[in-house]
Specification:
With 125 residues, this protein is mainly beta. The protein has 1 helix and 8 strands.
């Protein structure tokens, strides 16, 4: 039996593609913040979200099971000539427990490997 491909879903059964991940840690609280960027959402293309159940959280599914995290924020950024073209969606997650962080990182390593993503430090000006 092969392990399932790691997926991310806002709506039941609609896998989304993460385009970028930014990880930060608050030095005062130790809480970790994850910013996931999506350049498009399949759930809103062709109104597919109306045919699927909204999970009220981000689901991350891999061989270990399902991680369900309620985002601390979601921003839709629009642009284009009329200002109505979806440029990206930014989903912010706050993770305050070490065991949850470890599980999230195991998922992200699997997701990155399955989707050709690589870790890199941000470029400094």
């Amino acid at each position: 039996m092969t392990a399932p491909t790691p997926t991310v879903q806002f709506y039941e059964g609609i896998a989304e593609a993460i385009d970028n991940v930014s990880l930060r840690r608050n030095p005062d609280t130790g809480d970790r913040t994850v910013l996931l960027t999506f350049k498009q959402l399949k759930a809103i293309e062709e109104f597919r979200s109306f045919r699927s159940q909204f999970s009220k959280a981000l689901k991350m599914i891999d061989e270990e099971g399902v991680i369900t995290i309620e985002p601390s924020g979601i921003r839709f950024i629009f642009g284009g000539p009329e200002g109505d073209d979806l440029e990206r969606v930014e989903c912010t997650l706050t993770i305050d427990r070490e065991d949850h962080w470890d599980r999230f990182m195991r998922f992200m390593h699997r997701y990155a490997e399955a989707n050709g993503m690589a870790y890199g430090e941000p470029s400094r000006p």
